[in-house]
Amino acid sequence: MNNTLLWSFIALLFIALVWAFYKRYKMLKDYDPANDSDKLVILTDANFKRTIAKGVTLVDFWAVWCTPCKIQGPIVSEVAEELSDKAKIAKLDVQTHQKTAQQLGIRNIPTIIIFKDGKVVQQFVGVKTKSVLVKAVKEALAG
Questions:
Q1: What is the tens place of the pLDDT at every residue in 73-96?
Q2: Would you say 33 and 73 are in contact if contact means Cβ atoms under 8 Å apart?
Q3: What value does the mean pLDDT of the chain take?
């Protein structure tokens, strides 16, 4: 009896893992930057310095071909929905706007930099959770 219960539990766990991987795959496959939040500021080499010059700005440096960026993108959109009235939440495509990325020494993506009045306050490399990003923006606003 105990053996049957154990195998049932293992089978259920296996099914849950397969389902989780499938959902992650579907999210990555279906990610389209065009579906990002309307509150997200799209940066270019031309508007970058002007945009970060005043106030707090979170910038997600990303590229279309970058798989971790496809995970980070929707998270940054959620941050924009929550904090756009307090700070600018923005994205810069490093493939299209290489000049700015090179000037800042962006070598790995996704990279997220939080600026306050044009100066770097905090920098993250790799995928970060919404709570980490919200906390960092709020710290920059308070400091």
A1: 999 999 999 999 999 999 999 999
A2: yes
A3: 91
Name the residue type at position 141.
L
Strands 41-43 and 88-93: parallel
Q: Do both 93 and 119 map to the same domain?
A: yes
DSSP code at position 33:
G
In whole angstroms, how large is the CA radius of gyration of the chain?
19
- Count of domains observed in the chain: 2
Same domain, residue pair 26 and 37: no
What are the residue numbers of the active site?
Answer: 66, 69
What DSSP designation does 84 have?
Answer: T
Measured CA to CA, the distance from residue 90 to residue 111 in angstroms comes to: 12
Tell me the residue length of the chain. 143
